[in-house]
Amino acid sequence: MSVSQFTTRHPDQQACPIPFLRGFLGDQVGWKWVVKVAKAKLRWCLARVGHGNGASGRSYSWLPLLLSSLSCHLGLALCCILVLRPGAAYACPSAVFLHEVPRLSRGQRQEMRLFALRMVTAGRQVWEPLPLQLDPLTPEGRLIFAPGTDLSQINHQASDLLTFQSEDFGRPMDVNTPPLPCSSGAIYEVSTAAGVAYLTSCAAMANSVPARFPARVTFDQAHHTLQSRFYRYRFNPDNYMQFASIAFPGARGEWDEVASDSRLLIHADIKNFFTMRFDSRQIVSRLEASRLGPIANLARLSFFLRILLFKVRMSLATDVGFFVDSAHIPMQVDLPVNAYERLNSGSGILYSWHLASAAVVATKTMRMPRLDPALVHMGFKDLAKLGLSYCHGDSCLFNYTVDFHGQQLSMALDLRRSLVEKGFFPMFVADTHKPSEAMGWGLDAEEDTKHIGMYFEVSGLPEGAHPWDFWLRLGAPDQVQLSCPQAVALRLIK
């Protein structure tokens, strides 16, 4: 079977690249592989970021657009540092578009079922229903929230996204396997490194036996808190782009804080003009909509930029997904002008947070260069040489992990080589106060707690949209080299 790499598109939309590996065997019964390339990190088309002149139709200058575009997308990604206790060897969710299982592309959402095969006593095999989440998308790939609507009663579409946790999977079928509890026709075998499950439609069973599973992630909007059995993540109530605290479950049932007080700083050294500095007080984000499912809590955040006495809605939003042991935040840096024509070197974004004292002494691993102010000021071409050492082919991978009493706080960033060639990539900052003077950040060490963080230089970026990917990897053992999301293989068996 020949396997080749290509780019497919979300149905009916023109700009939603998802890299795949696929074996071409047609639509007949037999192996039909759909292997998600791990380095693509499942863009899913959940967040196709819009931009424009705002609802009022007024025209804004290039500078607010530049600053807001940079801040809202980068800030959102780096604020969401989730946590997980190691346990499941194969963390991170898996997903397929419904058009990849065409024999199941008709019917109501509540009819879709996923089963895992378990071996019990005396070699007896039993079927266990598994949770799955089927989310409707627009033709452009944006999530449809539809508050107040029972989506389970609505017919699914080929563009819908089916998500599941593959650590729930079981063993493959054999000659002694009993029939599935229900099936209205086609059956797909879904395989990952964690195991196998079987996807089918149960039209006759949907109304009599609804598929109900408890949510694995909960959201307390009154207290601005996301929680699963592995983490508690509290948003900054005044700015959802940032977190107030992150905690892990302790040995005695308490929550141990790992990180807190995240902050965002934009430093723009404008050519033939004065330097502008924006922090979290000027950059605001709000929760626009959310939906809680059995696999993920999905949310849409919008962004504002405060300029003097005005709060400008920038018509920018992104959709994010929080899972029991990971989170995915599709990213895009969208520039209305060529930054290299407008900004001097040393213009960029700093995202930082306070690390708890117990986490400071914890074991850390890092695949990311440290910030060197002198190199930054030499220009993006010299800076790019440093970043390119982290690239393999067209993909450049960066990560940072803290092992906190066996619980990992980890983030993984995947950037295209074309971005790194412009000097745009994360650089680790061990103490934000030390390079503050050289970088022009204006931080006061005597009146502030120690923060660590990441800096992104933006002065080399050209005009246009620059997508990249941010995954929160949570809890996989070091010896298991898997990326988010997990690779999936589909086989039509009936």
Can you put this structure into words, describing what you see?
The N terminus is likely disordered. The two termini are 21 Å apart. The chain is mainly beta and 494 residues long.
Tell me briefly what this model is.
The protein is 11% helix and 41% strand. The protein is mostly beta strands and 494 residues long. The two termini are 21 Å apart.
Low-confidence spans = 1-90, 309-315, 475-482
How does the helix and strand content classify structurally?
mainly beta
Cα Rg: 23 Å
Helix count, per DSSP? Answer: 8
- Average pLDDT: 75
What is the total number of structural domains?
2
For the terminal residues, how far apart are their CA atoms? Answer: 21 Å
Give the topology, please.
Blueprint: E1 3-9, E2 17-23, E3 30-32, E4 34-36, H1 62-79, E5 94-97, E6 112-119, E7 125-130, E8 133-135, E9 161-164, E10 187-192, E11 195-201, H2 203-206, E12 218-220, E13 225-227, E14 232-236, E15 239-249, E16 255-269, E17 275-279, E18 283-292, E19 296-307, E20 310-323, E21 326-335, H3 339-342, E22 348-355, H4 357-360, E23 363-367, H5 373-377, H6 380-388, E24 391-392, E25 395-404, E26 407-416, H7 417-420, E27 426-429, H8 436-439, E28 452-457, E29 464-473, E30 489-492
Antiparallel strand pairs: 1-2, 2-4, 3-30, 5-9, 6-7, 6-11, 8-9, 10-11, 10-30, 12-13, 13-14, 14-15, 15-16, 16-17, 16-22, 18-19, 19-20, 20-21, 21-29, 22-28, 23-25, 24-25, 25-26, 26-29, 27-28
Provide tags for this entry.
11% helix; 30 strands; Beta-galactosidase, Chain A, domain 5; mainly beta; 8 helices; nine-stranded antiparallel beta sheet; 494 residues; 41% strand
